Amino acid sequence: MAFSESALEELGLAPMWVRRGMRPSVETTASADAAGAASNAGKTSAIEAADAAGATSSLQAASPREAGMNARIQQPPAGADEPAWLDEVSVEPPAHTRTNRIVADARADTGTDVATLDWDALSARVTACERCRLCEKRTNTVFGVGDRNADWMLIGEAPGENEDRLGEPFVGQAGKLLDNMLRSLTLARDTNVYIANVIKCRPPGNRNPEPDEVARCEPYLQRQVSLVKPKVIVALGRFAAQSLLKTQASISSLRGRVHEYEGVPVIVTYHPAYLLRSLPDKAKAWADLCLARDTWQKTAGAPPR
Ligand code: URA
Question: Of 51, 239, 294, 302, which sits most exposed with the smallest number of CB within 10 A?
């Protein structure tokens, strides 16, 4: 099986559900030539795989595994941990002056020494953190997981219910999809990837984190990035992307380009929980991962920072 086919298989893109007579939508991203080329290859394979499945009913899965996966996609489990970033609609920024003041106040309060901590001290600091109101309702802080010397760093929004309970990022259904996506690039959280969130404590009811909560937590992530020294960062979902890149731009406008956080190239993609519900966007996520891989290959060949 060709690499692109096995990768798509891992992503759950081939074979896939296809409504008779319909093809997955294909986005053109003028600003990412490399990603475009790679993604078009992937999309073509996915489409061909879907066609090859030869639908005999209006919706048909070509394998039991996919049938199970797509049953989940179509019917998210009741009471599932609904993350705030599922709302992919761009929100209006709060008034600049107010946001700037909140963020500045929080930054002033965060203490500069976080930037000097080693892994153990940083982890202990997060465990004991009471910098914002999120500490009141958390069960566990969720520090991060994976290879602390990884070239790849993935950054999500905030812990959900399962993560709060277990103290590890991305442990639910979205985490399984994330692991499959990583496997398609021969990456794994216990080997060569580091995974963290912008926010280390679960916002009650998975509400959107407030600007001051983000600002108070940011030194921890900054320190994690400076300790890992990744070659590429993948921002998972609108909230992570907007927080890292300090923008209110929509995720669709941020995808397909190489951004920067703390001197590290950043690629923006959809949140895996969103992908569980939006099958066509999996092809776009594959394009994003291809852009991340191309970016990583370039930076891995460059002299160390
Ligand atoms: N969503 C996130 O953004 N992070 C997690 O750790 C879990 C779900």
Answer: 302
The ranges of the chain with pLDDT < 50 are 3, 15-93, 106, 110
Cβ 36 under 6 angstroms from ligand 1:
no
b/e map 261-299, b = 16+ CB within 10 Å: bbebbbbbbbbbbbbbeebbbbbbbbbbbbbbbbbbeeb
Nearest CA to ligand 1 atom 6: 169
| pLDDT score, position 166 | 98
Counting ligand 1 atoms within 8 A of each CB, the residue from 179, 197, 234 with the most, and so the one to mutate, is 197
Residue 188 shares a structural domain with residue 62:
no
Considering the domain architecture, whether residues 27 and 171 belong to the same structural domain is answered as no
Q: Is 87 helix (H, G, I), strand (E, B) or coil?
A: coil
- Identify the domain containing residue 57 by its residue range: 2-72
- What is the C-alpha separation between 188 and 200, in angstroms, rounded? 21
What pLDDT digit, counting tens, does each position of 118-137 carry? 999 999 999 999 999 999 99
